[in-house]
Each structure stands twice: as C-alpha cells, then as structure tokens.
Design a protein that fits this description.
Shape: globular
Strand content: 35-45%
Order of helices and strands: HHEEEEEEEE
CATH topology of the largest domain: Lipocalin
Number of strands: 8
Number of domains: 2
Strand order of the largest sheet: 1-2-3-4-5-6-7-8
Helix content: 10-25%
Distance between the termini: 70 Å
Length: 147
Amino acid sequence: MKINVFYCVVATAIVALSFVARGVADDKAEPSGDLKAMQGSWDYTTGDGGKGTWVFENDKLTLTLPSRKYVMKIKLDENAKPNKAVDFSIEEGPDESAGKKTLGIYQIDGDSLTICIGGAEETERPDKFETEFPRRFVFKMSRTKKS
C-alpha cells in the first residue's frame, strides 16, 4: 500500500512539473511563421505627414504615433480566409483604450506590411484593405532601415 501511494505521489509530481515546464517554454517560445517575419521595427507615414512606428517583439506590439503610444498583445490567424487575421489586445494606451480589443487583417510580403484595423466602435473584422473613416484604417509599412 505504501508503495502505491509513493508511486501516485511521484506520478503527480512528474505531471505537475511537466505543466510548469511547458508554461515556461511557452513564455520563451520563439515566434514562427508570419509572426517571425513581422519581428522588428516598421515605419509608415501618417495622413498628415507624421511618422508612425510599429515594433513587434514576440507577440507584443508597441505602436508609436506622433501624439500617442500603444502597447498590445497580438494574435495572428494565418489560415483565415479571405484575408489573414490579426487580433490586438490593448494593454497600455491613451484615454480608456487599455483592455479593449481591435480586429484586423494583414498582408506581409518581405519588407512590406499592410494592416487594416477596425475603428474604435467596430466589432467586426475589416473585410478589405481600404480606409473608411471612422470604420477602418489601413497602415502600409516598410521595414525600418538600419543605419
């Protein structure tokens, strides 16, 4: 009986440690697919001639605009049809944006990245890459050139 209890305790410990190890590994997992291709800094010119920068670091995005900054967690769906999908969960931002989600679509081709996001009041994912104020906004970016 004591041996069975011992084996149950050991088995439970092994299972618990495997879950802890998997959680640690997931936190440090390297991005793959399109998320890997997005890593780094991307620039675009705003409608009023200002500069915006999107910096992807693993599944985090820091979006810096001339008058505001956002920090978001992103989730890609490379298999979505007709357009690849991206979900943005805002962690930090101006006004009352923290805690909100924004849905989008994206295209990536080498050093060119296009993202279309829904406006603040939109609950549906954009279906095309066209700006339609205030429903959706398109960002056409180029990978930041290293100097």
